[in-house]
Amino acid sequence: MATTSDIRNGLCIRYNNDIYKIIEFLHVKPGKGPAFVRTKMKSVTNGKVLDNTFSAGHKLEDVRVETHKFQFLYNDGEYYHFMNTEDYSQIQLRESALDSPGLMKEGEVVTVIINTEDNMPLSVEMPASVVLEVTATEPGVKGNTATNATKPATVETGAIVNVPLFINEGDKIRVETDKGTYKERVKE
């Protein structure tokens, strides 16, 4: 059993007959009244996000999990296929188990969280950022880089990311996976 003081990002808990992963949390101690923890949880079975508030000291049933490195192989529309980098076994997961499937390219190594009770994969954690090539965007205008203006760009995975005006087709950019936002241009 865990309490609200054990809450951290990535913690998996059993709540309302389902398993949830903590995405965000905030400990709040108001000047008047008892302390509480405000959380944002994502269901690992159906992908729904739930906002919930726990009072301080509330008991939580945590789920024991293991993490393994898997390499993304391909998706066939409905399922995403991964291979364990240690024993080469393969698993397939639905899109709802993935945090940002649009930013995942073939060959990407991700961390898969597996429930130790039944060895079922719960969710996939992407690296903090990924490097993707821009495949389509409007051409940049010289001298128009002083403002924080952005334009949409399609990357090699098909996802659309807002980028600064100086980014052109063929440029490689680093994208933050948790927000899906442009971070920097990558030079080879």
Short description:
It contains no helices and 16 strands.
How would you describe what is shown here?
One of its GO terms (cellular component) is cytosol. The protein has 188 residues and is mainly beta. The chain is flat. The model has no long low-confidence stretch (mean pLDDT 85). The strands form 3 sheets. Strands 1-6-2-3-4-5 form a 6-stranded antiparallel beta sheet, with no helix packed on it. A 5-stranded antiparallel beta sheet has the order 9-8-7-10-11, with no helix packed on it. The chain is built from no helices and 16 strands. It is 0% helix and 54% strand. The protein folds into 3 domains: 2-62, SH3 type barrels, CATH 2.30.30; 65-125, Nucleic acid-binding proteins (OB fold (Dihydrolipoamide Acetyltransferase, E2P), Beta Barrel), CATH 2.40.50; 129-186, Nucleic acid-binding proteins (OB fold (Dihydrolipoamide Acetyltransferase, E2P), Beta Barrel).
Features:
OB fold (Dihydrolipoamide Acetyltransferase, E2P); SH3 type barrels; Transl_elong_KOW-like; mainly beta; 188 residues
Structural class: mainly beta
Helix content: under 10%
The dominant shape is flat
Q: CA-to-CA gap between the ends? A: 49 Å
Largest beta-sheet characterization: 6 strands, antiparallel
* Helix count, DSSP H or I runs of 4 or more residues: 0
Order the strands across the largest sheet as they lie in space. Answer: 1-6-2-3-4-5
**Proportion of residues in β-strands:** over 45%
Rg, Cα atoms, Å = 20 Å
Elements, N to C (H/E):
EEEEEEEEEEEEEEEE
Average pLDDT figure: 85
GO cellular component, one term: cytosol
Protein name: Elongation factor P
Organism: Siansivirga zeaxanthinifaciens CC-SAMT-1
GO molecular function: translation elongation factor activity
